[in-house]
């Protein structure tokens, strides 16, 4: 063969050739790491290289299909080959089935968004200024306002000696004048007494007539008081009942949704003088109850006018207002008693804390030549939005805490609060939605004990009898005694009503775990939201008010308006309010009538920090670093109610206390299908609720900035479940098909609360659906969505 001149030069070194090893099995990431190590000249792999076997795929449990999805955030779950720089690997047993013996969680203190706002490290100790809603010091007593002496004596028994600024303005006007009034005052300033006392005074003057014709329950309705929520209506009725106790010939009643309309008709037929109602039920009785006559009505009180309009009660209010305008005013009662002591015309009083456009619309619809009444100092207490500021003696603070640390920070904060005996007796925690309330209530309470012989039956957690309230020792108040009996399950011979309340309270009242301390070894936990039946809500509020042990109420905005619960020392806004007006009413549950109080709001780093500037318009606000709260809250040992591998008894671990608590909660939730379902539902509803802030405040609460994976950690979840946007339409359709509401006028936990306007209305399904749709739009436009009602 001829030589073509091509020379092939193969030069081999002294070392043997590297063999190309094909890696099989194990994880893809492990195989790539091994191949890269082989190419990079690291330790040369040999034929006997073993790649770890892939962990078995997690088995689906319950309704896991479609309800959980992998999340792209790399801060969750096990990380092969070691943790991310600055991230610790936590190991422990007791994990989910199919995940092996190892449990790895991401550190709570790494890869969190940075806080943008810089606060002064050393802040001066807050000193409470002069109270802005306290009784006036320059007024001797209520007697100086020309009120009946028996009313003044009854107020003294209630430990009310001097009027507040708004009472000193409203009471003389309603005593002497017959014109309409628009009353604007901050929360806790006593608006209820401001309009009740002059009404009762003028009605009592009718009983002094010398013609022998006395006023009785069948003399007609003299005043109608409209409240936006059932709880506020019940509270107003309770105050009214207390005031008229010395006058047995006067009768009041409350008509609200969720109660028997037949029983309400029977009471109206017997005769009532004062009617406290919610708008929907009032409109229903005006249309369908013939025994309800309006010719003797002299006062129409519209309490919390802004809330009445926000909840979409405009049509119901129009029905009541127009019905009163059509009826001619009578000069005497059916039995011939003269009504000259009462105003010659009907007087409408509109009470509202704001001057929003919908309130102005309500005023145009109901008022005629109204007088504006406000406290003298209120000019300084009204912000640029026409909204009253919080009481000056209220100490407000905020906690900027990353989403991953929210749950452990809340528990630590409650522990620090109850670490000093007697300082805080009652605390209210506001959350965005009913599902979130249910999750946190079930998580923080002592778990139910399961019968070993029958695992399907559970025994409710027993609540020890509480100390008998001192004010009830010599009291003949039947309602107060019943409230005491509710707290004492062991008391024999209980009435049927009390036994029924006992059964209701077993679902909403329990002893708390995690948050107890040596100073407060027993803390009573309550839950409250609009999806509970009306009887359950009433019993829960009564129990929380009468409780003499340290207690916590976890609730939605259904408890934010008008409720006057004694001894509330602290308000925690775990989820920020849907509107700034709701925030003012939330924090107004404490620091009432001149008493001091504390309010704290949880915010996340980032856009939510801008909300602080808006909070400053309602008063001074201080910062509480979450690191300090975690340190104080973990000084004492936590008694875990459930044993998990993360918190074995008597075994020391290298975990930080917050990490240990978080890992324990996650393992407990994973091992409890019911708790896992509550956590997923709470997370989904929380995300949906986050998108319902008012348009003006959505810049602070931007859902696109919300880290779903970190938020899932705040619900004790390792990864965010799927189906965030689904469910609302299905719930709405299911509730419409169901016809009559069986939950006291409210839909499911995550659905919209319709108040009382759809119960026993007699409307067909389409009309009811259209009304519900219209009022839902009103709620969304006002920022008061289904989440803060239900």
TrEMBL record:
Residues 172-373 form the Helicase ATP-binding domain. Pfam families: CTE_SPB4, DEAD, Helicase_C. Signal peptide: none annotated. One of its GO terms (molecular function) is hydrolase activity. The keyword Glycoprotein does not apply. Belongs to the DEAD box helicase family. This is ATP-dependent RNA helicase. It comes from Emericellopsis atlantica.
């Amino acid at each position: 063969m001829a030589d073509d001149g091509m020379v092939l030069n193969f030069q081999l070194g002294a070392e043997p050739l590297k063999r190309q090893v094909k890696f099989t099995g194990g994880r893809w990431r492990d195989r790539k790491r091994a191949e890269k190590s082989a190419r990079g000249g690291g330790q040369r792999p040999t034929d006997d290289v073993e790649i770890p076997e892939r962990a078995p795929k997690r088995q689906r449990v319950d309704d896991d299909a479609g309800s959980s999805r992998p999340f792209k955030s790399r801060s969750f779950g096990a990380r092969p080959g070691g943790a991310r720089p600055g991230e610790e690997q936590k190991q422990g047993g007791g994990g989910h089935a199919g995940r092996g013996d190892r449990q790895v969680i991401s550190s709570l203190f790494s890869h969190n968004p940075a806080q943008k706002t810089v606060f002064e490290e050393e802040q001066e100790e807050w000193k409470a200024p002069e109270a802005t809603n306290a009784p006036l010091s320059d007024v001797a007593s209520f007697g100086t306002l020309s009120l009946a002496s028996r009313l003044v004596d009854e107020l003294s028994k209630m430990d009310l000696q001097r009027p507040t600024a708004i009472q000193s303005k409203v009471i003389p006007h309603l005593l002497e004048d017959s014109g309409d009034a628009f009353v604007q005052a901050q929360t806790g300033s006593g608006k209820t007494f401001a309009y009740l006392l002059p009404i009762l005074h003028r009605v009592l003057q009718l009983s002094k007539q010398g013609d022998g014709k006395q006023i009785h329950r069948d003399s007609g309705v003299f005043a109608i008081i409209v409240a936006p929520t059932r709880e506020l209506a019940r509270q107003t009725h309770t105050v009214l009942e207390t005031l008229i106790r010395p006058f047995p010939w006067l009768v009041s009643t409350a008509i609200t949704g969720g109660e028997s309309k037949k029983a309400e008709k029977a009471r109206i037929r017997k005769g009532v003088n004062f009617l406290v109602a919610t708008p929907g039920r009032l409109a229903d009785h005006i249309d369908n109850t013939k025994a309800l006559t309006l010719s003797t009505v002299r006062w129409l009180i519209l309490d919390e006018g802004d809330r009445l309009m926000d909840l979409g009660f405009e049509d119901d209010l129009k029905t009541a207002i127009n019905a009163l305008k059509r009826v001619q005013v009578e000069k005497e009662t059916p039995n011939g008693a003269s009504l000259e002591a009462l105003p010659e015309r009907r007087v409408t009083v509109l009470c509202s804390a704001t001057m929003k456009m919908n309130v102005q619309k309500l005023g145009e619809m109901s008022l005629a030549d109204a007088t504006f009444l406000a406290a003298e100092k209120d000019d300084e207490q009204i912000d640029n939005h026409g909204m009253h500021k919080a009481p000056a003696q209220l100490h407000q603070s905020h906690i900027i805490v990353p989403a991953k640390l929210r749950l452990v920070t809340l528990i630590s904060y409650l522990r620090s609060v109850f670490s000093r005996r007697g300082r805080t007796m009652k605390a209210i925690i506001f959350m965005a939605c009913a599902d979130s309330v249910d999750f946190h209530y079930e998580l923080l309470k002592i778990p139910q004990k399961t019968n070993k012989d029958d695992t399907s039956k559970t025994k409710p957690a027993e609540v020890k009898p509480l100390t008998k309230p001192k004010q009830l020792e010599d009291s003949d108040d039947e309602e107060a005694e019943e409230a005491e009996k509710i707290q004492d399950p062991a008391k024999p011979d209980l009435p049927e009503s009390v036994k029924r309340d006992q059964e209701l309270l077993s679902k909403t009242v329990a002893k708390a775990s995690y948050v107890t301390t040596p100073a407060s070894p027993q803390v009573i936990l309550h839950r409250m939201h609009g999806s509970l039946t009306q009887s359950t809500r009433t019993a829960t509020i009564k129990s929380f008010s009468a409780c003499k042990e340290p207690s916590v109420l976890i609730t939605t905005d259904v408890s934010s308006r008008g409720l006057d619960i004694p001894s509330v020392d602290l308000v925690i806004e775990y989820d920020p309010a849907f509107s700034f007006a709701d925030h003012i009413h939330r924090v107004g549950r404490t620091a009432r009538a001149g008493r001091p109080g504390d309010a704290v709001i949880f915010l996340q780093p980032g856009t939510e920090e801008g909300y602080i500037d808006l909070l400053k318009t309602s008063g001074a606000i201080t910062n509480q670093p979450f690191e300090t709260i975690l340190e104080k809250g973990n000084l004492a040992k936590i008694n875990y109610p459930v044993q998990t591998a993360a918190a074995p008894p008597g075994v020391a671990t290298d975990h930080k206390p917050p990490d240990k608590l978080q890992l324990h909660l996650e393992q407990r939730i994973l091992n409890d299908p019911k708790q896992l379902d509550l956590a997923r539902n709470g997370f989904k509803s929380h995300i949906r609720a986050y998108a319902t802030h008012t348009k003006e405040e959505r810049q602070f609460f931007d859902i696109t900035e919300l880290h779903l994976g970190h938020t899932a950690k705040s619900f004790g979840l390792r990864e965010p479940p799927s189906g965030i946007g689904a469910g609302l339409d299905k719930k709405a359709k299911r509730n419409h098909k169901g016809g009559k509401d069986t939950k006291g006028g409210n839909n499911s936990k995550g659905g919209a609360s319709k108040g009382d306007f759809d119960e026993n209305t007699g409307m067909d399904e389409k009309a009811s659906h259209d009304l519900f749709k219209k009022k839902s739009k009103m709620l969304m436009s006002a920022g008061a969505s289904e989440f803060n009602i239900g």
